[in-house]
């Protein structure tokens, strides 16, 4: 039988993935990825690895640990910080999948004899296509738009055909030791972190003006690079909510509006670093989203140009992920330029 290295994160989804593949008769190796952890955050890496080891022992499968701390710090954390410094809004989880899980981990696993890797992502593959999972609320194709045909040929997503409640039930059925463990949330490998506080460790604060769209000064911020478009900001004495609709990192100013879109909204956006999973650039009317779990929006793709049906406020650096007209297949995406 084929050998599958399953990325065991310590969570229930990857544990059930290993359980299902073993039931199918694959030779399974449980692999834990050790990422970088800052010394100023209460990270869960040690507990995660222990949970992964317990799962492997329960399933009777070999267990390995890949130390990818250097790669994670360089390719995810440094990228994340540098993008914010430049005034953009990156998606570190997209980069984590591209460079770590389907990059360094996949490469190490293949070198150690893997025919496939498997993860606990809620997604599925059909004849070279990346398809949304059965559980639409848990679907994670948004974070997988950088995958290629080669990636898909060598990857299995065992829980993609199940709803989350079914995965929990399978974990209890298998007696998995982490069956009741809560889902992890937040930044890939780091869990829930306060982005503002995290970035302040690497980017100095610098007071600047908060102004309305007419240029009237309304307040002060601690650095334009810490904010993103659409973000809610609190202004002393103001009863209405205000949203960032423009930021200028050179002038260190934030422009806010009492409406989420403001005057800066547009329908036309340029893409860069695009990846189209089929290898062919899609053209025509599609669906897309630029935030995880955001309702799919009508968008027309024409090469490196995306034209939305309705005005949107999107920060440079964000991922626009594109789906077919049914919203069932992820076609790929690009970075808003």
Keywords:
337 residues, alpha+beta, Rossmann fold, SH3 type barrels, six-stranded antiparallel beta barrel, 7 helices
Brief account:
This protein is of the alpha+beta class and 337 residues long. It is built from seven helices and 18 strands.
Integer count of domains: 3
Mean pLDDT: 94
Unreliable residue stretches: none
Q: What is the CA-based Rg, rounded? A: 21 Å
Largest sheet: 6 strands, antiparallel, barrel
**Helical fraction:** 25-40%
Q: Could you name the CATH class of the largest domain?
A: Alpha Beta
CATH architecture descriptor text of the largest domain: 3-Layer(aba) Sandwich
Question: Could you state the order of secondary-structure elements as H and E?
Answer: EHEHEHHEEEHEHHEEEEEEEEEEE
The percent range for strand residues is: 25-35%
Instruction: Give the helix/strand class.
Output: alpha+beta
Multimeric state of these chains? single chain
Outline the structure in words:
The chain has 337 residues and is α+β, with helices and mostly antiparallel strands. The protein folds into three domains: 3-173, HUPs (Rossmann fold), CATH 3.40.50; 204-262, SH3 type barrels, CATH 2.30.30; 265-336, Translation factors (Elongation Factor Tu (Ef-tu), domain 3). The protein contains seven helices and 18 strands. The chain has helices at residues 12-24, 45-59, 69-85, 92-111, 149-153, 164-173, 195-200, and strands at 3-7, 27-34, 63-67, 116-118, 124-126, 129-131, 155-156, 208-211, 217-221, 232-233, 242-248, 253-257, 266-276, 283-289, 297-302, 305-312, 319-323, 329-336. It has a six-stranded antiparallel beta barrel. It has a five-stranded parallel β-sheet with strand order 3-2-1-4-7, with helices on both faces. Strand 1, helix 1 and strand 2 (27-34) form a beta-alpha-beta unit. Helix 1 (12-24) packs across helix 6. The mean pLDDT is 94.
């Amino acid at each position: 039988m084929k050998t599958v290295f399953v990325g065991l994160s310590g969570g229930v989804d990857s544990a059930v993935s290993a359980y299902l593949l073993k039931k199918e008769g694959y030779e399974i190796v449980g692999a834990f990825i050790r990422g970088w952890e800052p010394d100023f955050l209460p990270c869960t890496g040690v507990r995660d690895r222990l949970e992964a080891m317990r799962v492997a022992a329960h399933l009777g499968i070999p267990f390995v640990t890949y130390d990818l701390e250097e790669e994670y710090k360089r390719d995810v954390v440094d990228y994340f910080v540098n993008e914010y410094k430049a005034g953009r809004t990156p998606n570190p989880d997209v980069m984590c999948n591209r460079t770590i899980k389907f990059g360094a981990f996949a490469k190490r696993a293949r070198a150690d004899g893997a025919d496939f890797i498997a993860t606990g992502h809620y997604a599925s593959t059909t004849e070279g296509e990346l398809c949304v999972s059965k559980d639409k609320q848990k679907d994670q194709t948004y974070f997988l738009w950088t995958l290629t045909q080669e990636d898909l040929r060598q990857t299995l997503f065992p829980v993609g055909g199940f709803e989350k409640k079914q995965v929990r039930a399978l974990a209890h059925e298998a007696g998995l030791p982490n069956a009741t463990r809560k889902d992890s949330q937040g930044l890939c490998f780091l869990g829930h972190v306060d982005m503002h506080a995290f970035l302040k460790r690497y980017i100095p604060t610098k007071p600047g003006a908060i102004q309305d769209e007419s240029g009237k000064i309304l307040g002060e911020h601690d650095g334009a690079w810490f904010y993103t478009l659409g973000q809610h900001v609190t202004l002393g004495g103001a009863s209405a909510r205000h949203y960032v609709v423009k930021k200028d990192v050179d002038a260190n100013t934030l422009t806010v509006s009492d409406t989420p879109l403001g005057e800066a909204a547009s329908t036309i956006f340029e893409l860069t670093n695009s990846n189209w999973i089929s290898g062919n650039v899609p053209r025509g009317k599609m669906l897309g989203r630029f935030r995880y779990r955001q309702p799919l929006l009508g968008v027309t793709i024409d090469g490196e140009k995306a034209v939305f049906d309705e005005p949107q406020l999107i920060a440079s650096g964000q991922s626009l992920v594109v789906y077919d007209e049914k919203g069932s297949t992820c076609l790929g995406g690009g970075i808003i330029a």
